[in-house]
Amino acid sequence: MATNKQHVGLSADGNMPESGAQKSWMDQLNRKRVPGPRTPYHHKLDARTGCSTRAVHSGTYHDPVSGAVGTPVFQSTTFLFQDKTYDAFFEGVTRDVPIYTRYGNPSQWSVQEKVAALEGAESAVVFSSGMAAIATTVYALTNRGGHIVTSYDVYGGTYNLVREDLHQSDREVSFVDPTDLSAIEAAIQQNTQMFLFEGLSNPLLKGLPVKSICELARKHNILVVIDNTFLSPVASRPLEFGADIVIHSATKYLNGHSDMTAGVASGSRKFLDRIWAQMLRLGGQLDPNSCFLLERGLKTLALRMRAHSENATAIASALDSHPKITRVYHPSLPGYEQTELLDICKGNYGGVVSFEIEGGDPAALAFMEKLELAQVATSLGGVESLVSMPFNTSHSSLTERQRQQVGIRPGLIRFSAGVEDQNDLLNDILNALEQI
What we know:
By secondary structure, this protein is α/β, with parallel strands linked by helices. It has 16 helices and twelve strands. Helix 4 (106-119) runs parallel beside helix 11 (288-298), helix 5 packs across helix 10 (269-282) and helix 14 packs across helix 16 (422-434). It is globular.
């Protein structure tokens, strides 16, 4: 069943037509849903509380037996059946009752509630990886014969999924410049069901005009899915601007310590129930111990994002006039064209800064070898600084022509600024440049 309003028979206001009013509630997208899932022991905060407060307290499981301050790890695959368990099967609400950890686990609910609170969402689902979140969401919210609009410069794993796999399940994909609203509109077809974009692109930090894209999507009854990994809900909350689903590779900033992999999707309960049901079939749930690590990491998200952003902004400023740097990509620099992002983020642009080194790829590789603090490794968003080159990592699956098309030129480096002392990071980078 499609989720696009024009395909599911919903009226313009999202309500089921009168003729469908007598159908089973399981067939309706407008039936009343409660936020969550959560238990009475999961901490629910007033939405008006600040970001750091929600990061620390939302979703914490207050154990009625031990009084533990932190959420216990519910390291159990299955839970005892009770009357409410059988009622859940009968009523079709098995997502809200502990039954089996693939279906749901209080550890999962704690971290889901925390992410949902940070994003301003009704519900969230955690996954074993960011790619599990992306693939599950795409398959849950599109169907055979559907069409998706995305861009070439999405994360490499996402690109491989939409290019190599979706056509095998009879889904079409069009690639556009995500900053060009007219190009996005021109790509819309009668069967377009989803826009799939990144709020801040990897690795060139192109800021998405989220508000304008969501307005365009509403006009054409298209779902908007935003990968918000590079910004985090501290900097941007796309649901507030009309996005339907927000996805994160929680491996990155949300966890923040480079010690576990996870993904998360958040949004309205009606869509997250669909995504959850697809997750059951694909089996990409997050295990309880990883939920514990992710919830612990989220508690310091706002503090870490401030340090990441300040460090990346300082690096961008220092390199912008350096004689061995031909170009720097960062929203804080003069002339940044995607002004809507500047209004949304208000100075917090995450921890990534990209730059091109004079001398191309050989010079860039030599530069990375000379770094002492920043470590040459893939991924981003950890407390330690990481550095890599997109041409031989995240975007290695693109042809040279495709890389040029999206602006990935020789000598391009992606630097994920950690939370180290700013002067130490700057000295490390400048010393490495002096040696090439």
